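Lab meeting notes turned into a lecture example. A postdoc, R.K., suggested we walk through two folding results consecutively so the class can see how the record format repeats. The first protein's sequence and structure tokens come next.
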Amino acid sequence: MPGDEKQEQIRIEGGCGKPCATVLVGAATEEILGERERIAKDAASAVQAALNGGVVPGGGAVELAVGRDLDRVKSELKGMTAYGVECVAAALKRTFTQIVVNAGFNPLEKLGDAISAQLAEGSDCLGIDCDSGAVVDLWERGIIDPLSVKTNALRAAAELAQAILRIDTIIKKKESVQEPGAGSQNK
């Protein structure tokens, strides 16, 4: 049911027993209400995941740190393995760059700023303040993500990458098996 657009307060009252909160979602139209309800459910799920599995700095800072580590590992590898690691490192940096683009900043400049700051200060918590463009400690600012969400996303990405590599190998094997007979034609 559409509600008051001007409600700007949140009140959480103490309760007996299990901790819980009720979120009242209102909107001017049914379509907006449905979207806000979906957002509220997603937010509640994220809070539950954070409470159950812990948190890490948000804003793409963790992905940048993992990407930096993969860049170091890549230097020790060769061939397709090195290329695969390079692709994963680049994909990890995309989270950060998309956040920066959405904030209206140059992603290459801010990527360099954040990586340099992380290395200089030895902190994986550093990222970009989307309001000012300055490098800040996202952990101290309370910009966090649920650890389980990050872990599951990385696991799913790794499984997908493995599947793609297997499919590519199967296709190449199938092509090499068909090549000897490819030149013969029935007349």
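The second example is placed directly after the first for contrast:
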Amino acid sequence: MGIKKSRYPNIVIMDSDLQHNPKYLPVMMRTYNKNNCDFVVGVRDFKNYQGLSKIRLLASRTLCFVFNFFLGYRISDPMSGFAIFKKSIFYRFEEELFGVGWKLLADLIYNDAKFKIKECTIKFDRRIYHESKMNHVVLINVIKLFLYKIVLLKINKIQKN
């Protein structure tokens, strides 16, 4: 995994299909440094959704709602594939990560910790090359991640009491 091979204390994750434009990285880094955040997330503007089909828009908005409603609001777009975070957070929660699928951000932020998270709204661009990886297998893995996080949060609450 690239995170473990990194020599730096901060990690940038970004989907490689260029729907997340790297031009937002300087603004995200300034926000990260200025606010001493644990995470800065490039959140998609769902009102200006040119990079998503109507079905993907509905699926993304539904998943964001479900995660935030049942796991506690953390950010408006926990399904984002564009974020900056402290590498130490990854190592702190590595044993508790679901680790299947592509939703590392949601896997990290929905732990029992209270993270300082800032958002930067980004324009989610249209995919230029290749097909979306979103299919029933990915959706099933996201649902499994959600259920895993619910169980993990319940176990952590029981252990604290």
